[in-house]
Specification:
This protein has 213 residues and is an alpha+beta fold. It has one domain: Lambda Exonuclease, Chain A. Helix content is 39%, strand content 21%. The chain has seven helices and five strands. It has a five-stranded mixed β-sheet. It starts with 5 loop residues before the first helix and ends in a 25-residue tail after the last helix.
Length: 213
């Protein structure tokens, strides 16, 4: 295993058995992705825009609801800052374990660097300690060699709101410990027990021997 991603850690937190099927056995179950299509379009459009690719033809093909979301992101003050990277992958070590992921964008102004994450759906329930927040901030901090102030910005595109998390030494220490412990728990697990609470909505429930659904 190269590194633990936010998706991997969230999946294990939801259900160790689901993690086992998805990331250990690598069993892929067909699922409907219709509800994610709109978000994927906005992310792709944002990436092209930040790379200064002509997007006029793509914009003309957007639905009305997609146009509203795109204009909301386009007019967001954080999205208008100087872009350094878009759709950027990076990794770092949290204790003895490698963690990593793919950032929507990294931008900056005169005060600090910002990791942007566009949300066309709902924001995490506890954004400051979401695995995505922790991994992205820790990795970018290592890349910048702790020399620049950092912040993570969840952009709620649908409601034109921002949730800003300012990174500091205390959070760095907390994130390193939390991520290291989470990775260690997964690495030492040999049973991968099912968590019944999530079986109703799990794509693996039909053949999982630990559920009677």
């Amino acid at each position: 295993m190269n590194s633990f991603s936010p998706n991997m850690l969230k999946t294990y937190q939801t259900c160790p058995k689901k993690y086992y099927y998805k990331f250990v056995e690598q069993i892929n179950v067909p699922a409907s992705f219709l509800k994610f299509e709109q978000g994927k379009k906005i992310h792709a459009l944002a990436n092209y825009y930040l790379q200064k690719i002509n997007i006029s033809r793509i914009e003309s093909a957007l639905t009305e609801s997609e146009k509203e979301l795109w204009l909301s992101l386009l007019n967001n003050p954080f999205f208008q800052k100087t872009c350094l990277k878009s759709e950027y992958s990076l990794t770092c070590k949290a204790g003895d374990y490698w963690v990593g992921g793919r950032l929507d964008a990294v931008v900056k102004d005169e005060e600090r660097y910002y990791i942007l994450d566009y949300k066309t759906g709902t924001l995490p329930k506890n954004p400051e300690y979401d695995y995505q927040t922790m991994i992205y901030l820790l990795c970018l901090d290592v890349l910048l060699e702790n020399k620049m102030p950092l912040a993570f910005v969840y952009i709620d595109v649908k409601n034109s709101k921002n949730h800003v998390i300012e990174y500091n030494q205390k959070l760095k220490e907390e994130y390193t410990k939390l991520l290291s412990n989470a990775c260690r728990t997964i690495s030492s697990d040999t049973l991968f027990k099912c968590c019944p609470e999530g079986c109703k909505f799990c794509e693996y429930a039909k053949f999982c021997p630990q559920t009677d659904i």
